[in-house]
Amino acid sequence: MRTAHAVDTLIARKLAKRFQLLDFDGDGYITGEDYDKLVDRILQIFDEPPGSERAVALRRGYQVLWRALAMTSDTDGDGRVSPEEFQNAVVGGVLNRDGGFERAILPVTKAVVALADTSGDGRLSPDEVRALGRGMGISDEEADTFFTLVDTDGDGYLTVQEVFEADRDFYLSLDPNAPGNAMFGTL
To answer: Topology of domain 4-175+178-182, per CATH?
Structure first.
């Protein structure tokens, strides 16, 4: 049985990893500009024109996510989120209150899957997940591990629902074996 300290360590490691990938400029804070740069890199990976419907949906989703994060996390009002503010907000469960997680994360998940779904079949292949991983800052090997763990029905594709459940695992699960723990690469 895991102790509370071990669970806290797992959550801290997951959040530190996500923070690192979101802090695009490496200044020790997450800002709206970091989210914009993430979107720009994903659009570039998929050679998506910035004004396309999918690009606009992706940018809008990440802007909503940033506003929700800033509103609930930026406790000192400086327009940026420190690692401590980020961790306190997620550990405090702000995303899970009143359906907040689904409202904040599901639109981004749908937009990301729609953009990465280059075949247009409504699901992600291993190659599409690798490309998306590169956009998110993770290696092809890490993307392959994520894909294998999250393809819960074993059909060789990821659906929006499977990716959304992985998001939920990553941010909210205390289970060290939860498939979504691999979402943003090796912890």
So the answer is: Recoverin; domain 1 (1.10.238)
Question: Is the pTM here over 0.90, yes or no?
Answer: no
**Burial call 124-154: b when 16+ CB within 10 Å, e when fewer:** bbbebbbbbbbbbebeeebbebbbebbbeee
Q: Where are the domains of the chain?
A: 4-175+178-182
AA identity, residue 99:
G
Give the C-alpha separation, 187 to 14, whole Å.
6
Distance CA 10, CA 31 (A): 24
In sequence order, the 6+-apart residues with CB closer than 8 A to the CB of 185 are 17, 21, 133, 137, 138, 139, 142, 146
Tens-place pLDDT, residues 28-58: 999 999 999 999 999 999 999 999 999 999 9
The C-alpha atoms of residue 112 and residue 107 are separated, in whole angstroms, by 9
Sorted by sequence, the CB contacts under 8 Å of residue 1 that are 6+ apart come out as none
Lookup result for tokens 């490691």: 13
Distance CA 81, CA 32 (A): 10
